[in-house]
Write a structure and sequence with these properties.
Blueprint: H1 12-21, E1 26-29, E2 32-35, H2 41-58, E3 64-67, E4 71-74, E5 79-81, E6 85-88, H3 91-94, E7 99-100, E8 103-109, H4 115-119, H5 121-126, E9 134-138, E10 144-150, E11 156-162, E12 167-170, E13 175-178, H6 179-182
Parallel strand pairs: 4-7, 8-9
Antiparallel strand pairs: 1-2, 1-5, 3-6, 4-5, 6-8, 9-10, 10-11, 12-13
């Protein structure tokens, strides 16, 4: 009779040490490591637009934006994710060099291959972060941004902004901006 192969789990410490030397990024989920796929033109363009808008808005504040090369740690050994963009205002987070633990805002730019996970299991992990006030999903195929905002009762409310003439509000950082600015130079015709 053949025995079942047991899964080799990776410790958070070994994952972090490996990420320092890795040529590609991987995310960590409860002992398992998953390689990350590359991004398309729309994804990268939207990310550049958002970091430019947010960095300019936050200049002079105690908050700092980070792009997709910064990890978020959830729990002690639960998960490490690379969001497309995050904002941290906690002074302790500014002292952490390789990951952040108390983001105020997390933005994920959706792709066909990750959309279901970003909406489901990944959001479930992000909701464990007591500091998180807003989780934003940005569509790459049309002018559509969904902002999940934690209310005073600690429930998540959805605010949807769509159409080229719309503006989105990120209450966590006091920013309102045009979707035209978010999607500047995006070619929706690219496949």
């Amino acid at each position: 009779m053949l025995g079942l192969a047991s899964k080799q789990l990776v410790s958070p410490e070994d994952y972090l040490a490996g990420e320092l030397l890795a040529s590609t990024r991987s995310e960590y989920l409860q002992g398992e490591v998953y390689a990350m796929a590359g991004a398309n033109d729309s994804h990268v363009t939207i990310n550049v637009n958002l970091i430019t808008i947010i960095k300019t808005h936050l200049r002079g504040s105690a908050c700092k934006p980070y792009i997709n090369d910064m990890k978020v740690r959830i729990g002690e050994d639960e998960a490490f994710y690379y969001p497309d963009l995050l904002v941290c205002c906690d002074p302790a987070d500014h002292q952490r060099n390789h990951f952040k633990q108390a983001p105020l805002l997390i933005i994920e730019i959706l792709s066909t291959s990750t959309e279901a996970y970003d909406r489901g299991d990944k959001f479930a992990f992000y909701r464990q972060l007591a500091s998180l006030q807003e989780y934003v999903l940005v569509n790459t195929r049309s002018y559509r941004v969904e902002v999940f905002r934690r209310n005073a009762q600690h429930r998540w409310e959805l605010f949807t902004f769509f159409g080229a003439e719309a503006s989105m509000e990120l209450a966590s950082i006091g920013l309102t901006c045009s979707l035209l600015d978010v999607y500047e130079d995006v070619d929706f015709g690219l496949v």
